[in-house]
UniProtKB/TrEMBL annotation:
Taxonomic superkingdom: Bacteria
Signal peptide: none
Coiled coil in keyword set: yes
Biological classification of the source: Bacteria, Bacillati, Actinomycetota, Actinomycetes, Micrococcales
Coiled-coil ranges (or none): 81-115
Entry protein name: Transposase
Length: 125
């Protein structure tokens, strides 16, 4: 029986505190790329990406792959339909709000264009 790579576990090289500090540093400085932050910390880019993703998932910012993985039961068709209807209603309300904002901004722009023409014609140097 031969050995396989997945049978070998790598020792945990970094403490949980170091990982949390690395994630916090990366999140506090959005101008840093993964590469730059990883170089500053002396870790691999892939490790930092994994830590950030794990932290985001733990904070609920990234959904888990399957409801079963999070200890939840799968959604029934009725529950999914109800959830989607609520989402559609929210999106329609957002659309109405955005349409009203667009109409208001379009009217303001039209007024400003007229005012610009008026003052440009009035001003003679």
């Amino acid at each position: 029986m031969g050995w396989r790579m997945r049978d070998i576990t790598m020792p945990n090289k970094y403490s949980d505190e170091f990982k949390a500090d690395a994630v916090a540093l990366y999140q506090r400085h959005p101008e840093l790329s993964y590469r730059q932050a990883a170089e500053d910390l002396g870790v691999s880019q892939a490790a930092l990406k994994v830590w950030v993703r794990q932290a985001r998932r733990a904070a609920g910012k990234i959904p888990t792959l399957a409801p079963e993985a999070a200890g939840q039961r799968p959604e029934t068709a009725e529950e999914e339909l109800a959830r989607l209807r609520v989402e559609v209603d929210a999106l329609r309300a957002d659309k109405r709000s955005m349409r009203a904002d667009l109409d208001r901004v379009t009217e303001e722009r039209r007024i400003l264009q007229k005012a610009t023409k008026y003052f440009a014609a009035e001003t003679t140097w």
